[in-house]
Amino acid sequence: MQKKFEQILMPLATKLGNNVVLKSLRDGFLIITPLIIVTSTFLLIGNFPIPGWDSFWTGLLGKNWAEWFSAVSNSVFSFTGILSCMAIGYAYGKNRGLEAIHASVVALISFLILTPTSVSIGKETVGAVETMYVGPNGIFLGIFIAIISVELYRFAVKRNWTIKMPDGVPPAVSQSFDALIPSGLVILFFFLVHILFSISSYDTAYNFIYTLIQAPLKHVGNSLPSVLLYNFLASVLWVFGINGPTITNSVWSPIFFVLTQDNLKAYTNHLEIPHIYTQPFIDIFTTYGGGGSTLSLLIVMFVVCRSKRIRELGKLAILPGIFGINEPIIFGLPVVLNPIIAIPFIVVPVLNTFISGIVFTLGWVPKTTGVLLPWTTPPIISGWLATGSWTGSVLQLFEIILGIMIYYPFVKMLDHQYLDEEAAALEEDLNIDFNEV
Amino acid sequence: MKAIIILDQTQAGLGGKERADTPLGGKKLALGSADTTAKALSKVGGEVIGTFYCGTDFYKDNSDLVQEKFTKMADKMNADVVILGPTYDYPEFSLMACELSLAFKKESKIPTIQATAIEKNQELIDKYKADLLIVKMPKKGGTGLSDSIEHLVEGCKVISENGDLTQFKADYCY
């Protein structure tokens, strides 16, 4: 059974993990993630989930105080489309062996070529860019532009379509001329694309990509079966020693990213929050203490087990576990390639996903605001901060306890096995005394 | 085939980086990740007679002592083979494994084998691959762990029986 799984999953995981486009999407989103976490903090301070928070600070600092904070959060949340394009252009350029900064700038310019730069206000038209085009709704367009523009750029570079400067010209000047023809090719291409869309019924590339790709993908990704599959695959891969989320994020991260940004935008503008299945949903309401929801496993190890090995490891790993670090037990228990622990390690996150999905759908817990918390934020606190409601913490607590109940019989089985080994070894003393040599 | 497995504190299940000062020690059973290797070994008639462990910082500060104690104890326990790791791409553990492996080569007759990932360890592997038997393995979270453990065990069988390593080295080692 294990061998069969491996035969099916390994080639797929290797392919997904090594695919340069998917890897670049992952790397690109990781470039923006710190910015989102930092600006999320400003958003959180501006909208802290405590009754009377707003009126207290308004009384103290004046009515504009919240705007000071939203100026920071909007600097990222309203521009995630264009930021994604730049970051993915950078990552893809780097992964394709180009000067990453050139690739990033070329992607940015291409994005701007396709972005409408006038806005109609009544009968007048003014020169301006609507944030609609450069924000969350432009993320998929940004992805396509980054990949196509960098690939075109590379096409020219690889064929040496460059202007060679004589020896003695400073490298910076020479590099700038190297980029001339490849950049020209990319700009010419997007110039033609711009014309093509302007004479089509879609009017803009944005409309075309959003209508035909981003909206349908969002719809498919924003569903319970989609996130169940995500967490099932992520957990199964971990059991085989593969960092599951790295692989599954290759496929899901663009969708989660868009859904999260939609929620953030709505939250910032005090509108109804649209989506359930966002990145915070995955991070905060499906696993606790890392992949496999190992905080529940650790609690069982710490509280119930009698084998010295398991208890000691439980004691050592519980504190890091609260903060989402589970490396000590993934390799030390071990979880990897351990058929006994594999079952709850897969079942618990999937069950948590199902329960959380239902609870959010029924509206028992408010949807996640999209605020990205540092991944080390402990459960209970994270549930409250991510939803702005104590019910989020209650859901987390319930799922941690449920996880404990599911892990219990399996960990006990392992505990018995280790206890037997320890008892057998007791007769001849388990410890190796290095003072003897 | 009686095997001893050498691990760092993380792989032995004694904590993470914060416990790198764990002093050398050992248990007469398969500890932490050694359990996985032990199961694979049992399929080819092998058994783990002990796990030696040492925190990577402790090793760095006391490498001579650890090398001396581990080699002498393995000799005393009459091991047929010493397995170091799998070390994944942990650079400190990989270095410790290479240095210990070399110490066994100089101070003991027991053959050694280790599994190490190339990531973060390119220079180390280049330095030691001619002298040591280093089986290829994926980095932490990479694909192919199960295969590399099978190869590690296959290598144990060959070296413990004094077999020809040419083909094994060509197929699975650096």
Automatic annotation (TrEMBL), chain A:
Pfam families listed in its UniProt record: PTS_EIIC (PF02378)
Keywords from the named record: Cell membrane, Membrane, Sugar transport, Transferase, Transmembrane, Transmembrane helix, Transport
One GO term of the biological process aspect: phosphoenolpyruvate-dependent sugar phosphotransferase system
Superkingdom, natural source: Bacteria
A GO-annotated cellular component: plasma membrane
Membrane topology value: Multi-pass membrane protein
Record-level Gene Ontology MF annotations: protein-N(PI)-phosphohistidine-sugar phosphotransferase activity
Cleaved signal peptide residues: none
Membrane-spanning residues: 29-48, 100-119, 139-156, 177-197, 284-304, 316-337, 343-365, 385-410
Record has Transport as a keyword: yes
Compartments where located: Cell membrane
Limits of the PTS EIIC type-3 domain: 5-410
InterPro entries: PTS_EIIC, PTS_EIIC_3, PTS_IIC_cello, PTS_Sugar-EIIC/EIIB
Purpose of the protein: The phosphoenolpyruvate-dependent sugar phosphotransferase system (PTS), a major carbohydrate active -transport system, catalyzes the phosphorylation of incoming sugar substrates concomitant with their translocation across the cell membrane.
Protein name as catalogued: Permease IIC component
Native organism: Pediococcus stilesii
UniProtKB/TrEMBL annotation, chain B:
Keywords from the UniProt entry: Oxidoreductase, Selenocysteine
One Pfam family in the UniProt entry: GRDB
GO molecular function: oxidoreductase activity, acting on X-H and Y-H to form an X-Y bond, with a disulfide as acceptor
Protein name: Glycine/betaine/sarcosine/D-proline reductase family selenoprotein B
Organism whose genome encodes this protein: Pediococcus stilesii
Lineage of the organism: Bacteria, Bacillati, Bacillota, Bacilli, Lactobacillales
